[in-house]
Design brief:
The protein has about 220 residues and is of the alpha/beta class. The protein is built from ten helices and five strands. Helix 6 links the parallel strand 1 and strand 2. The longest helix is centred in the first third of the chain and has 21 residues. The protein starts with a helix and ends with a helix. The relative contact order is 0.11. The structure holds cobalamin (B12).
């Protein structure tokens, strides 16, 4: 039952079926399917399949937009069920500011990471997408986070991550905060090259990295 609904969610995204994704998300909740599994193994897997098609020239951008929309709408239904099922720790593990860098509007992966960090017990401030360097710096000064999380999905925009780190350094803020990065084109090597403290390849790994950075694992 659980596997079937997770597969239906994946197929709805793959078939550009927004209504189906919404319907199966509601059904999954009613059937008690783990919402995290539904998002990661259902919806996100579907988006990746459509992404591969797009890369191979077998899908149009409009189709990619619809697949992403199906994912987002179904995710919005599933997300509220997460903290209820996984009793999040009362005491926060730390404060994290997360955002997608300037010039980049991809937010599916960043939002999943934000959700998983919240579930794990972090206080997460999601700045959204297309966040300029100055905004990351300003929020670091104002909110004094333990960690800054930056997402970039394009080889062009990942360069902005280096700018944020450089500017934080110039403003004497770099030593006060840990930095972790993620997004498909990024890697552990890129994190090292730009002087970030950690890289998360997926949501689970990102939580582990964040815990290490605040010294709780
Ligand atoms: C969905 C998608 C879109 C959707 C985005 C919808 C949305 N609201 O996010 C839409 C259709 C809008 C879109 C638009 C565009 N896209 Co697009 N898109 C994708 C696609 C297919 C999937 C991305 C995705 O959501 N993956 C699923 C999630 C779950 O995975 P993820 O993002 O990798 O996140 C995981 C990890 O990376 C990590 N992670 C992510 N963020 C963070 C942050 C932190 C702090 C940490 C620790 C970890 C972490 O954890 C996540 C969860 O597991 C990718 C293909 C790909 N291979 O990535 C192309 C892709 C990224 N897009 C691409 C392009 C070119 C574009 C457009 C320019 C297209 C156009 N011609 O207009 C525009 C960009 C506009 C802009 N300025 O940003 C290219 C980028 C190429 C490049 N230069 O590098 C790609 C690679 C496709 C391709 N091969 O051509 N896109």
């Amino acid at each position: 039952m659980e596997e079937e609904l997770v597969n239906r969610l994946m197929n709805a995204v793959v078939n550009y079926d927004v209504d189906g994704a919404i319907k199966f998300a509601k059904e999954a909740l009613r059937a008690g399917v783990d919402p995290i599994k539904a998002i990661q193994e259902g919806l996100a897997k579907g988006v990746r399949i459509v992404g591969d098609r797009f890369e191979a020239g077998e899908a149009f951008l409009t189709e990619l937009v619809i697949a992403a929309e199906a994912m987002k709408q179904a995710q919005a239904i599933l997300e509220p069920a997460i903290p209820k099922r996984t009793k999040a720790a009362k005491k926060t593990l730390g404060k994290i500011i997360i955002g997608t860098v300037e010039g980049d509007i991809h937010d599916i992966g960043k939002s999943i990471v934000g959700t998983m960090l919240t579930v794990a017990g972090f206080e997460v401030i999601d700045l959204g997408v297309d966040i300029p360097v100055e905004k990351f710096v300003e929020k670091t000064r104002e909110d004094k986070p333990d960690i800054i999380g930056m997402s970039a999905l394009m080889t062009t925009t990942m360069l902005k991550m280096a700018d944020v780190i450089k500017t934080l350094d110039e403003e004497d803020l770099r030593k006060k905060v840990k930095i972790m990065i993620g997004g498909a084109p990024t890697s552990r090597e890129w994190a090292e090259e730009i002087g970030a403290d950690g890289h998360g390849g997926d949501a689970m790994e990102s939580v582990e990295v964040a815990k290490k950075l605040v010294g709780t694992s």
